[in-house]
């Protein structure tokens, strides 16, 4: 499991005084500031975070050492990470997306269906995008208890009972 978890992303400058537009990936979006200092993926930069107000698509925020619009624009697209030990423990039926990515997915008979490429959410529920073995195409598997009865992080595997016709 990864030692850090992606908790947000900077989508550019907000205004001309060094604020950034911040998109939060935490279950309580405003809680992103509670996990600071946040780091870049490579750990080369670290930021304290102060949310100043809610804006469309996220928050306007001040980051330490970001003083101008140019500084903020230079961070566009940067993902922000927090150490796993600063994040809350999850109930048994919830998972950090980063823990699912890369796991092999097997059907109930033990045949490998693919590997989790990413976890998507378009509003209704999560979907696991599976990369199929030996193919370039992917399949979207509903991440529901019916379609995915077992997620075993300790064993590093997922067992799925996909809807009929999904893998044809």
What's this model, at a glance?
By secondary structure, the chain is mainly beta.
Describe the structure.
The structure is a single chain. With 168 residues, this protein is mainly β. It is built from two helices and 13 strands, in the order ββββββαβαββββββ. A six-stranded mixed beta sheet has the order 11-10-9-8-13-12. β3 (38-39) and β4 form a beta hairpin.
Q: What fraction of the residues are assigned to beta strands by DSSP?
A: 35-45%
In DSSP terms (H or I, runs of 4 or more residues), the helix count works out at: 2
Mean pLDDT: 91
Helix fraction by DSSP (H/I, runs of at least 4):
under 10%
Do you know the CATH architecture of the largest domain?
Beta Barrel
Strand neighbour order, sheet with most strands? 11-10-9-8-13-12
CATH superfamily of the largest domain: RimM
Number of domains: 2
Question: Structural class, judged by helices and strands?
Answer: mainly beta
Low-confidence stretches: none
Question: How far is the N terminus from the C terminus?
Answer: 32 Å
| Secondary-structure element string | EEEEEEHEHEEEEEE
CATH class label of the largest domain:
Mainly Beta
Instruction: Say how many strands there are.
Output: 13
Largest sheet: 6 strands, mixed
What is the rounded Rg? 19 Å
Shape estimate:
elongated
Would you tell me which CATH topology of the largest domain applies? Elongation Factor Tu (Ef-tu), domain 3
Looking at how many chains there are and whether they match, the oligomeric state comes to single chain
